[in-house]
Design brief:
By secondary structure, the protein is mainly α. The chain has a single domain, classed as Helix Hairpins (Orthogonal Bundle), CATH 1.10.287. The chain is 65% helix and 0% strand. It is elongated, with a radius of gyration of 29 Å. The protein starts with 25 loop residues before the first helix and ends in a 9-residue tail after the last helix. 18% of the residues are buried. This is Potassium channel domain-containing protein. Pfam families: Ion_trans_2 (PF07885).
Length: 324
C-alpha cells in the first residue's frame, strides 16, 4: 500500500531558507526567495492586482461608452414615439401600428445591447469587478463570469490565465498540504493529551510512577490518526458552503430559494453589475478560500489514507502500483 505511507510528501517552504542571503549565486538567492509559499503568494497577489487593472483599463471604457449610447438611443425612441403619437388620432389603426413599430425597435435595441455585453444594472468592469474576474480565472471557478468584449481584453485574459493558473495551482497545492500536515499534527497532539487525561482519571497514580508515553512508542511507527480527521474533508465542505449562505445570502436579506443559490448572484446573468464593490471583493476571497479548502481536503485524504482502503481498492481493480 503505497497510499498508506504515514509521512506526507515534500512541499515548498513557507518562508525562504534561513541562509538564502548567503547563496552562492544571485540566481539561487532569487529562487530561494521566490520559490517559497510566501514568495508565490506575493507573486499571485501582485499578478491578480495587475490583471484586474489591465481588465479595467481595457473593458471599462467600452462599457461606459456603451451605456451612454444605450441611454441616447432609448431617449431618441421615447422622443420619436411621443412625436409620432401627437400626429395621429388615438384608437385609429395607424396609432396602434406606430406603437408596435417603436416596440419592435426597442426590442431590437435591447437584444443588440445584451448580445454585446450590456449590463442589466450598474457596471461590470469596475476595478472590484475586474478583481473578482481575475480571481475566478485563477481559481477556475468562474462559471457564469462576464466575458471580455474587446480583442485586447480577451488576449490579456488568455495571457493572464496561462501564466497565473499554474503558479496559483502550485501555491494552493503546497499551502493545502501545509494546512493538512498542521491539522494532522494538531489531531495527534490532542489525541495524546486526551489519552493521557483518560488514563489519569481512570487509573490515578503517583507523579513518580507517571512515565512518559513517548518512551514506549517507536519513532518509526507513529500512532494512527484520530477517526475524526478522516471525516474532516466531508464535513468541512458543507460547513464552508453554509458560511457562504450566511455571508452572501442571509445577511443580505435574501429569500429562501435565493439563499441556496447565492453563487448565481455573482454571475453576468445574475446581476453581478449591481453588486457593490466590497461585496465582489469578499466573494473573490470566498472563492480563494474554497480552492484552499479543496486542496487541504485532498492532502488530508492522501495523508490519512489507511491500508484497508488501499487493499479494498486493489481488490476492486481500482488501483495500480505506481512503479508499473
Amino acid at each position: 500500500g503505497i497510499q498508506a505511507i504515514p509521512y506526507p510528501p515534500f512541499r515548498l517552504r513557507l518562508l525562504p531558507h534561513p541562509d538564502w542571503q548567503e547563496s552562492e549565486t544571485t540566481l539561487l538567492k532569487v529562487m530561494r526567495l521566490v520559490l517559497c509559499q510566501c514568495g508565490l503568494a506575493c507573486i499571485v497577489l501582485t499578478w491578480a492586482l495587475i490583471g484586474a487593472l489591465v481588465f479595467h483599463l481595457t473593458e471599462a471604457p467600452r462599457e461606459y461608452s456603451q451605456v451612454i449610447e444605450m441611454n441616447r438611443r432609448q431617449t431618441e425612441l421615447v422622443v420619436g414615439l411621443a412625436t409620432d403619437l401627437r400626429q395621429v388620432v388615438p384608437e385609429e389603426p395607424v396609432w396602434r401600428t406606430t406603437i408596435e413599430q417603436y416596440a419592435t425597435h426597442h426590442e431590437a435595441l435591447i437584444l443588440s445591447a445584451v448580445s454585446s455585453g450590456y449590463p442589466q444594472r450598474g457596471t461590470i468592469w469596475t476595478y472590484c469587478g475586474c478583481l473578482l474576474f481575475a480571481t475566478s480565472l485563477l481559481t477556475t471557478l468562474g462559471f457564469g463570469a462576464p466575458v471580455p468584449r474587446t480583442v485586447t481584453g480577451r488576449i490579456c485574459a488568455i495571457v493572464f490565465a496561462g501564466v497565473g493558473i499554474p503558479v496559483h495551482l502550485l501555491l494552493v497545492l503546497n499551502f493545502g498540504l501545509l494546512l493538512a500536515v498542521k491539522l494532522h499534527h494538531l489531531s495527534r497532539v490532542s489525541q495524546r493529551k486526551l489519552v493521557r487525561l483518560h488514563r489519569q482519571l481512570t487509573n490515578p497514580k503517583s507523579q513518580e510512577e507517571d512515565w512518559p508515553e513517548d518512551i514506549f512508542t517507536p519513532d518509526d511507527t507513529p500512532p494512527p490518526p484520530p477517526s475524526w480527521i478522516k471525516f474532516f474533508p466531508f464535513v468541512a465542505i458543507p460547513v464552508y458552503y453554509c458560511l457562504g449562505l450566511l455571508l452572501f445570502g442571509v445577511f443580505r436579506d435574501k429569500t429562501f430559494p435565493e439563499v441556496l443559490l447565492f453563487p448565481l448572484d455573482f454571475t453576468a446573468a445574475g446581476g453581478v453589475a449591481s453588486r457593490y464593490g466590497p461585496l465582489r471583493v469578499a466573494y473573490a476571497a470566498y472563492l480563494e478560500g474554497a480552492v484552499i479548502l479543496a486542496s487541504t481536503n485532498v492532502a488530508l485524504l492522501r495523508v490519512t489514507a489507511t491500508r484497508g482502503f488501499t487493499t479494498l481498492g486493489i481488490k476492486l481493480g481500482l488501483m495500480i502500483n505506481s512503479h508499473k
